[in-house]
Design a protein that fits this description.
It comes from Ciceribacter sichuanensis. The chain is of the alpha+beta class. It has helices at 24-38, 45-55, 60-68, 75-84, 88-136, 142-191, 202-213, 232-239, 241-258, 282-299, 328-343; strands at 222-229, 264-269, 272-278, 301-303, 309-312, 315-321, 350-352. Helices cover 59% and strands 10% of the residues. α4 crosses α5 (88-136).
Length: 366
């Protein structure tokens, strides 16, 4: 489970091990439903996710902010809170809102352009009428002609002013649409980003896997690595969730610095991370796993708040190759099997799927 810090308010207590009673899922559902009913929160999926994050996922910031909304929070306030904490369903809501704003801006632009065309057509008809009357009535006096010319001059000035206003409104409207597109893109990015570590999340990882297999030819030469922190639950139990969160953020930073630009790393849940390395064989995958583990041992020393060192952080790593699979789910299953094997050998917790001899594709993994 994700290790976000505990809430401490009496009205939103995280469900710890002592409070949970079998069946846990049913117990959680009852508590969430009771809380929503008590505070008159509408039974919308996005509201359920928000309350779940506060009560079950042990996100102290969400719990604190939810309590600050008062006894009967409005839907607008709840939605703002969900957007603030980048909850998935609320990011989708933001995307819909942005699309609505862009549509409204386009409608306003269309109305302005239509208004400008009407003014131009009116001016053109007036000009044609005056020219026709001058040609057909040669007896008209100079003063009458001058009045009509003054009218045309005034109409032309109005037209020029309207054109300038339309140009400005078009520029403003286009800027609003561009801003809406950027906001929508940011909302989509939030859906794919892990809030704690800022790494890609499980959704982003699954999208990358789907793209890998959604090609004309079967994927070849890509390794998937699953990395798990040894005894992470014990770290949380002894030193608290905030210490665990800090550790996860530091670990993510080490991973970013260790892999190459075209490689991919994601936090898929709790203390589990997944990697994709292209143009490698099993031999290179083994070497990469060794390098990742060494980088963590050399750069990440876990210490308590009192400053006492707890030694280096241990990792278990399992890897699998796309060459041995035909679907993303099969690749994941192979990597999970390898990780389970790695956990059984703490002295050298790195394992590849299968017993075949490692193959090399020649990539330089240094």
């Amino acid at each position: 489970m994700q290790s976000d810090a505990n809430a401490s308010h009496q009205h939103i207590q995280p469900l710890n091990a002592q409070q949970q009673k079998p069946p846990v899922a049913q117990d959680n559902l009852q508590k969430i439903t009771a809380f929503m009913a008590k505070h008159q929160i509408a039974g919308l999926p996005r509201n359920f996710e928000l309350v779940y994050e506060a009560m079950v996922s042990r996100n102290a910031e969400v719990a604190r902010d939810l309590l600050a909304l008062g006894a009967q929070p409005s839907q607008i306030a709840l939605d703002h809170l969900g957007l603030k904490h980048r909850l998935v369903s609320h990011c989708g809501l933001a995307d819909e809102h942005v699309q609505s704003e862009a549509t409204a801006a386009l409608k306003r632009l269309a109305e302005q352009v239509s208004f400008g065309l009407i003014r131009k057509q009116t001016f053109t008809r007036a000009l044609e009428s005056i020219v026709k009357s001058i040609r057909e009535d040669e007896t008209r006096g100079l003063s009458e002609i001058m009045e009509e010319l003054d009218f045309l001059d005034s109409a032309a000035r109005d037209l020029i002013r309207d054109e300038a206003e339309i140009k400005l409104k078009l520029k403003t409207g286009l800027a609003q649409i561009e801003a809406a597109e950027r906001t929508a893109e940011a909302a989509r990015a939030m859906v794919l980003t892990d809030r704690l570590t800022e790494l890609p999340n499980r959704i982003a990882f699954m999208n990358r896997l789907e793209d890998l297999y959604d090609r004309d030819s079967a994927p070849f030469g890509t390794a998937m690595l699953l990395v798990d922190i040894d005894n992470f639950k014990e770290i949380n139990r002894q030193f608290g969730d905030e210490a665990g969160n800090k550790l996860l953020r530091r670990l993510a930073a080490v991973f970013r610095k260790t892999i190459k630009k075209h490689d991919f790393v994601a936090r898929i849940e709790g203390d589990d991370f997944a990697f994709l390395f292209s143009d490698v064989g099993a031999t290179e995958a083994q070497a990469i796993a060794e390098r990742l583990r060494t980088a963590v041992e050399n750069n990440l020393i876990f210490a308590t708040e009192q400053g006492r060192s707890q030694g280096t952080l241990g990792l278990s790593i399992g890897y699998a190759m796309t060459a041995d699979t035909t679907t993303p789910s099969e690749l994941i299953a192979h990597a999970q099997s390898a990780l389970a094997t790695a956990r059984t050998t703490p002295r050298h917790p790195i394992a590849g799927y299968g017993s075949e001899r490692p193959r090399s594709l020649g990539r330089n993994v240094a």
